[in-house]
Amino acid sequence: MARPLSTFRLATASLALIAPFWSAATAQTTRAVEQANDAFGVRVGIETIGLYSEGQVRGMSLQDAGNYRFGGAYYVRAANLVDPVLAGVTIRVGFNALDFDFPAPTGVVEYRPRSPLDWQGSSAELALREYNSPFVEGMTSIKLGAQAGLLVGAQASFFNSSAGNTNDSYRFGTVGEWRGERARLLAFGALNVFDLDGTYGNSVSGDVLPGKQKQPNRYVPKWGDHDGTDLNAGLIGSYEASDDLMLRGSAVYSRLDLDKADFALLSMDATGRGSATITSNPARDADAIALSAGASWRHTPGHRIFGEVRLRSSRNRFGQGVSVRVAEFDQDVGLPDTLQPVVPDGPRTRDTAQQVTAGVGYEANFGDLRLKGGVQRAFYERDFQRPGTAATSTEEEPWLYDLSAVAAFADRWTGFASITRGLEDTGVAPANAVNRDEVLPAIVAEQREVGLRWRPTDAVTVITSAFSIEKPAAVFDAAGRYGLSGDLRHRGVELSVAGRPVPELRIVAGAAVLDAERSGERVDLGLISKRVPGVSSYHGTVGATWTTGLDGLSLDANMVHWGARRARSTGNLETPPWTVLDVGGLYAFRIGDAAASLRLRVLNIFDSKQWVASRSELLDRVNRRGVRLSLTLRQQD
């Protein structure tokens, strides 16, 4: 799809949006470091800080576990949420995950919605992001009487990736909120219309890493495309029936529609030469409905009974793709021209899952000691059917539980311990397995954890913990059958320091050491490695903001370091450690009565370019050096 606006035209249109706000505003700026209460993970817009992300926590995939919440409500993510409806995203693990009723192993990703009642006014942002990528955002929030408000926001982004691919997206979001004396109702809708010129991944050819990949360059075919829409919508409500009884409920719908999904798998050797397989896929769609209803009753001071029923229904429909083989190419040149294959519009494979979970729990506070526990029963069913073949299915009815204890045993010291069991999908056997399309049983993951929280001052918090996560592993056996065999165990320790050692300086720093291992027949026979691919045994991060002596000027820096990663399950090939340093500054000022901020960031300032291995045994490159510059204006009523 041709880009509809040049950078000049986008800037002109953006200034038209900004102009009305130049007469009145209150200065307000947000950065991830400023919002983070610990070092485990926070995202505000495109700025992030922390050890973990929305996709992976403690080396585990949260997409597999489905540990997501939106505004505290149960949420099953089939499509990506957009920033116009989000105040931020927080990764809750360890001590800061214990406040959730029925927590999940490996933590919870909390999507925090914007509130039109907490902030009313308008804002606009005009930015030139890394690699000369124009971006514009407009947002307005108004009160509808004394108890209700409505927020509407939109973004247009014309992004150039580090590799040179384009990603155009138009994002729209709205949040409506009503607060009564004892009730609250929040409704939201979010839409993202996106168009990428295809996607690609790198695999290893031989026993050495590929040569340095030229960027920017084109590693997708000229006809490549990856476009569609993300849609999320929901209703979340709560009602305080009495001073001791709270009722809550939610209904959230998430849907992804992909019109095209072209993917190029590159295989390159150390000289930078290799082959490629380009797959063009027909349209596909996926959706998920998540419903919940719960209650919390404080029957006596310090004691609470709580319960919840959750229901989810997920569906994924997709067709058979057509592949084109490129026998040889040079990565310095890029992919050669190829003919676009004709993808037949045939019948689709259907993958559905339903789950009902009912639970009850109890919380008791005895002065400096809090005990909390819950038990759940899950009813899970999954069906998979490829056209022309018999359907396969699985049913599971596991018992799940969680127990935790938190004790303040000394001045400024708090200890905690927990054990949590949760249910996870394992999918179906892949096309290259003897038992292709067989639905695998859902599995139970278990996490044990102990830790300490220390507050050396009122403005600094230190959290440390040790954890162990275990669950069955899905692998190929010697006969080529894919199924559950052996176990996957992640054990580690982590440290978080966050706060203001002095008023002018805010620091968020963390480190984690992780031992990720597999066991079972394939490991014992030496066919696959004991160590899990794509997981670093250690990593750390430190971020800081410093308010200078110059009025309105603050500086910031963020550094992340990751250890080496095994590139695949066979052999001993590893990707090397890498470090990325970002530096920047923010200048807050006024234009008349308007509040404005000018933000500059230089990403990967030393231009690190290492290969990075993923759990899927594909390789990616660290994004090359880039610069972001943005102007934000705000008017608050």
UniProtKB/TrEMBL annotation:
InterPro entries: Beta-barrel_TonB_sf (IPR036942), TonB-dep_rcpt-like (IPR039426). Gene3D superfamilies: TonB-dependent receptor, beta-barrel domain. Residues 1-24 form the signal peptide. Keywords: Cell outer membrane, Membrane, Signal, Transmembrane, Transmembrane beta strand, Transport. The keyword Membrane applies. It is found in: Cell outer membrane. It is a multi-pass membrane protein. This is TonB-dependent receptor. It comes from Sphingoaurantiacus capsulatus.
